[in-house]
Structure formats: structure tokens, C-alpha cells
Amino acid sequence: MDLVSEIMSLFAGAGQAAYHGEAVSQTEHALQTARLALAAGVDAELIAAALLHDVGHLLCGLPEQAAQRGINDTHEAVGAAWLEQHFSLAVAAPVRLHVSAKRYLCAVDPPYLEALSAASQVSLRLQGGPFSASEIAQFEMDPHFTAAVALRRWDDSAKVPGLAVPALESYRAILESVVLRKC
User: Fold this and answer.
1) What pLDDT sits at residue 38?
2) 47 with 37: CB under 8 angstroms?
3) C-alpha to C-alpha distance for 126 and 121, rounded to whole angstroms
């Protein structure tokens, strides 16, 4: 099975599980996030990152209630490590940094912190809470900082039950265009 078909199968299987304390499935959340990236007019790599930002949840296989049980699944690291084998850093780095982007936004934008869903607030505590001043400065120097913050904002807006979005298959060409070809 080729990589893109493998990704489609992940979403068709494990992706049907509920999205960690939210009223949408993993796949619905991914599709809503990708739709927001597409609407923003960003490049194919960042659209792919938006679609795949939580692939680590699908690869980890931990129960949906992991955060509520006090488990930080480090899905961002798991997902990015897997993506780095198949995609450029333009795809993998925003995925690796999207949890850091949440911690950053919570530190620099108090209304952002107040607007987090209950499930995101639980996971924020497990992920280390809002950044310190030194963590903010370090994060802002990362070359993928802007992409990670954009991805995080789409991520937070992509939890709408019943929202009509393009089907997963509509992203096949985008994924195929950015996958690294191995000789």
C-alpha cells in the first residue's frame, strides 16, 4: 500500500474514534483543520500539516480519554517523527510544534487561554502549561514558528459537530504532491 493510501486507511479506521473530549471524530477534526488551512490560501505543505497534525493520536493507539486519565501521549512528537520519514520539515515541523504553539498562545494571549475548550485545558496542564518568558523567546526564534501558530489557531477552530467539509479523498492530490519520493 502506498503512503497516501495508508494515511487514508488510518483516518478511515482509527480516525473514526472521538477526538479527545470533543464532539467530533479524529477524522472530522483533521478535515476541518485542513479546510481552514485551504481557505487561508497557504501552501500544500501547510495544508498537509493541518490535515495530519494529530496523526500521532492515530499512531499511538491510546484510548480517547488518555488526557482525562493524566496521560500526555506526546502525539505531536510521535506524529512528527513518523511524518519526517515521508515529508519535508515544512510538513513535519508545524506538527511537532503545534502543542508548543498552544502553550505559547496561552502565555501571550490571555483571551486565547480563556477560550480553550475544557479538553484542551486538561491537556494543556499535562503538556506543561503556558510558556515562560524564556520559552516564549526561544519559540519565537524557531523558523517554523509562524506556521505552527497558524496551525494551532485552525486546530482550535476545528471542533464543530456536523460541519460539512470536503471529503478526505479530496486531499489525496495535495498529499501526493508533498510526499518525499524515495529512490
Assistant:
1) 98
2) yes
3) 9
Predicted model pTM: 0.90
* Per-residue cell: 43: 501552501
Q: Tell me the domain boundaries of the chain.
A: 3-178
92 φ/ψ sector (left φ>0, alpha ψ -120 to 50, else beta): alpha
Least confident among 41-45, 65-69, 166-170: 65-69
CATH 1.10.260.40, applies to 3-178: no
Mean pLDDT value of segment 161-170: 95
